[in-house]
Amino acid sequence: YLYEDNLKIEDIKSWDIATYTTKCSKKELYALLTPVLYDNISVISGAFTGINILRIYARVIFVTSNVANTGNAKLDALNRNGFSVDKKDFFEALDKSLIASNYLIDDNYDNVKSAFGQGILFTRPWNIDKNFFPRSNNWKEIIGYMKGVFSK
Known about the structure:
The chain is α/β, with parallel strands linked by helices. The chain is built from five helices and five strands; from the N terminus they run H-H-E-H-E-E-H-E-E-H.
C-alpha cells in the first residue's frame, strides 16, 4: 500500500520477492518485514482444521525461518488465530533439516527436499515449477495423505 504496488501472491514465482516489486528497492522492502507484518495475517484455508486433525495422531511443532525479531510476532499470530501453540512447540531455524521431525510440510522446495524426515511440498506460486512428491495443493490433501500414513 505504501508504494501503490499491485503485487499479488500469484505473481510471486520465487523466494526473492524483491524482484517482483516495481516501486520500492530491496532494502525498502526488507525494512517492512517487522513484527507488525503479522498483526493482520490471514490463515490459509483449512489450516486450523488440518492442524487440529494432525494433533490427534502426532505432536505438531511449528518451525519458521524468520527475518530478525519477528519470531515472537509469528507465535503471537498463531495463538491469536486459535492454534494454541506452546512455546515448546515453536522453533526458529533457517535450516529446517536440523529439526528431527518425521514429516515437514512446507512451501519452500529447498526445505522439503532436505527435510530430516519426509518433506511434503505445499503448492504455492513460487514452487509450482518444482517436481516433488508428495505435494499437496491444500490442507484437505495433506490430511488425506497423513491419514494414509497413520493408518499403516
